[in-house]
Amino acid sequence: MDIREIERLVDEEHWKSPIFKHGKNQSYYYLLSSFEELCKSNLSSSILNPSKIFEIRNLMDALNIALIWADSLCIEDNTDIDAHISDDIYRDSCELLYDYAYPYSVICTGYISYSRNSYDATVNDNTVIFDIRSDQNNSLISDLIREGSNSDIGSMAKLIPTFKLLNSVSELKKHISVEDGEIGYINSQEVSATYREIATHQWDVTRTLPTDWEFELFSLEDYKKFWISVTALCYIHFCSGLTITDSFIRRNNGVIKKSRKLIIDYIEYDSKLDRKTIDNILNYLTFNPKKKNVDIMYQPIVSMQNDMILISPNLFMGSNPERNLLSVVSTMNDKKYFNNVNGLETVMVSELESAVSYSCIAKHKKLREDLPDVDFAIYDEETNSALICEVKWFAAADSTKEVFAKEDEITHGCKQAEDISTYAMSDKKAFVKQVFQADTDEAVDILCCVVAKNNIRTRNSKVAVIDLKRIKELFSKHPLNDVINIIRNHEYEIPLAPGMTVTHKDIKYAGFTFKIPAIGFEF
Q: Fewer Cβ in 10 A, N or C end of the chain?
């Protein structure tokens, strides 16, 4: 069977789920509530089995796919949602998340990479095997290693502090009540202090951006106050559910269901932000399933009929707030955001300058009107060599779609480096004179590369792309001519550690077995 015919069958497999027989808003509610109940189970299990924390991350990927499907397949419903979730509906929701949406999300990484000519694909009977193309450079493997290292259990534990949460439950239980099947809690200063501390710590351990950043409709400091207020509420709501032994009551109270006005009232009181700023941030974070490369993690607030909103606590508790905000703001044509990024690229140039000891350094050097500026360059008279660096700052990519979006931006940076290289090679002596005000000859060795912050995956065969941390390491250990040769020969890329190997992850779906490239460990 043809690979694209199999793709069509894969794209239709989830249609059989009974969840899509409900209205759109009702399906959203069922999926969010079931997601929360599954997260509670995995968080509790992670005490004895830390790897269970990864299930929450997988569930987030699955939830995003399931919500997009619901938007596409469910009819519009304008009635109030039914908050009660039967055992059958819970089973159907869990089945959709675990048996359909999660495996589909993994298979998508294979198909996207195949469509982008990063993977080859072969079909043997009912098995589809994706392999990294032989003409790919090692940056793809380097990124697989890097992405894996960014998702270790220790990092996840920082985002969701399991022990501290569970220890707080006994105290919180004194403030919890159940009336007519609904959980209520007293959100006093005494209760909220612990959870504000946890939320603030979560912000602090994940923050990387300058605190003075301004966007067009709010500042980063405004967003921090908003996020800590909402996340503290999410922790309280989530832990309140942990105090309830009745699974039916717990399941029906998994998500925060409030009117938009009440949410704004709460945030205004807790954060002291003005209502207009709160409203602007809410709009940025409201889930839009029709948006390109949408992800419920980046827009974790779901708008319902009658001005009601749903907030799934784990989408805030398990988030990297700055990174997720940038994923949204970068799509909003926010001019201040792009100015901020330019500022961070200037900071990167300063970091590069501080990492070298050569006297001939050029920064932000204009060449010609039709050419990009030289961001950073070094000339070493002793070895008669020059390194030209095009600098690119990116927030770390999370999903496969995001990685490829960053790759497109890297490709643009490579084109700029190629243009500079062509100009330099046309008259190397004149180029060195123009950029460094130094005299040399045509034997000078010149290399142009791209230096990137975070994801460095590239398919460009002419221009090397190296991340900032790695090139600083090279500068600290090698003379410039050796650094140039290491970069030119792609010897800077992250090697597979002992015991690591490029293998396949097997996914069974729609009657097929899909083998997706992954980093594995040999024991």
A: C
